[in-house]
Amino acid sequence: MTTIDKSKPVLVTGATGYVAGWIVKKLLEEGLTVHTAVRNPNDTQKIAHLIELANNSKGQIRFFKSDLLEKGSYMEAMQGCELVFHTASPFTSNYKDAQKDLINPAVLGTENVLETASKTPTVKRVVLTSSVAAIYTDAIDCQNSPSGQLREDIWNTTASLDYQPYSYSKTLAEKKAWELAQKQSQWDLVTINPSLVMGPMMNPQATTSESFTILKQIGDGTMKFGVPKLGIGIVDVRDVAQAHYLAGFTPSAKGRYITSGHNTNFLDMSLLLLPKFGQRLPIPTKAMPKWLLMLVGPMVNKALNRKFIRNNVDIEWKADHSKIKKELNMTFLPLQTTMEDGFQVLVDEKIIQPKS
């Protein structure tokens, strides 16, 4: 049982990220002092939304310069903190060198932050933003699991540097975290393992996230002739922030928590946007046949190779989220709310332009 003193500062790494912004918002609303670790505290464009959040809340914010690959660069930011949220890790399919762009920042960054925690006597708990990608690679892995669905005791064994390297990076990073946690007794580790995170972004500049690429393609006509019926789990970004908060401040929280609101697929996600946006935007209404995807997929997107299509399209995705509901009293927003609110930001920012 680990009780965190709310009068002490809390560290959030990767604070300008999509999920981290909502975690910072929640902490500030609760009146906490937030230490935010960012690559460049002088880049006012990237941190403006966080400053505004602090100005409109009970809490306070302080910025610290840090870098995932620079040993000891989190030391100053961690001083006096009992709780550390480590969210910083790359999420993209647009990379040149998987080892350099995905694996190293994820694994070495986790090692850097957790080793610093061990050298900071005040730290009692680290909450790591992992992913269901550390549990599975493809939707078919759900069917191949012992109970036909993903659970916290399962680890990803099918990703590699050559196939789904993002999933591989999350697996290696979380394994490294547990390895380091077990070597000491000062702090405990809790991991949040979200499925695909959707919903509104705090920082309209941060539209590089994979989640927004998918939303944009649903609305800009890329998929108007059909969307891959790709099995996937979805969770609202606001729920992910709440899950982190509960994991940090619930004394009995322990182990891994699958944080996924809905078992769904790309077609069902698209159909939920029709009532509000279907009149003005080319939202797809039907699935693209699997055989056709096999032909054209690899030409459209390098991530849509035949193995990926075979293992994910027309295959049900299923995860068990009973642990987080039972142990942390977690509830999840409706999928329609998540889809509409996330999509509305793209319309408001004119990233997608509806017909008038």
Description:
- There is one protein chain.
- The protein has a domain at 10-198 and 234-260 and 316-332: Rossmann fold (3-Layer(aba) Sandwich), CATH 3.40.50.720.
- The protein has helices at 18-29, 44-55, 75-78, 98-118, 140-144, 165-182, 210-219, 237-249, 266-271, 274-277, 290-300, 306-312, 322-327, 335-348, and strands at residues 10-13, 33-38, 60-65, 83-86, 125-129, 188-194, 196-198, 231-236, 255-259, 262-265.
- Helix 1 packs parallel to helix 2 (44-55), helix 1 crosses helix 8 and helix 4 runs parallel beside helix 6.
- 40% of the residues lie in helices and 14% in strands.
- The chain is globular.
- It has a 7-stranded parallel sheet, with helices on both faces. Strands 7-8-10 form a 3-stranded mixed sheet.
- By secondary structure, the protein is an alpha/beta fold.
- It contains 14 helices and 10 strands.
Q: What fraction, in percent, of the residue positions are helical?
A: 40-55%
Strands in their spatial order, largest beta sheet: 3-2-1-4-5-6-9
| Largest sheet properties | 7 strands, parallel
**Mean pLDDT across residues:** 90
Which homologous superfamily in CATH is the superfamily of the domain at 10-198 and 234-260 and 316-332?
Answer: NAD(P)-binding Rossmann-like Domain
CATH-derived topology of the domain at 10-198 and 234-260 and 316-332: Rossmann fold
Beta strand %: 5-15%
Beta-strand segment tally = 10
Which CATH C-level class of the domain at 10-198 and 234-260 and 316-332 is it? Alpha Beta
End-to-end C-alpha gap = 56 Å
How many helices? The count is: 14
| Rg computed from alpha carbons, rounded to a whole number of angstroms | 20 Å
Low-confidence stretches: none
- Secondary-structure content class: alpha/beta
- Quickly give the CATH architecture of the domain at 10-198 and 234-260 and 316-332: 3-Layer(aba) Sandwich
| Global outline | globular
Order of helical and strand elements: EHEHEHEHEHHEEHEHEEHHHHHH
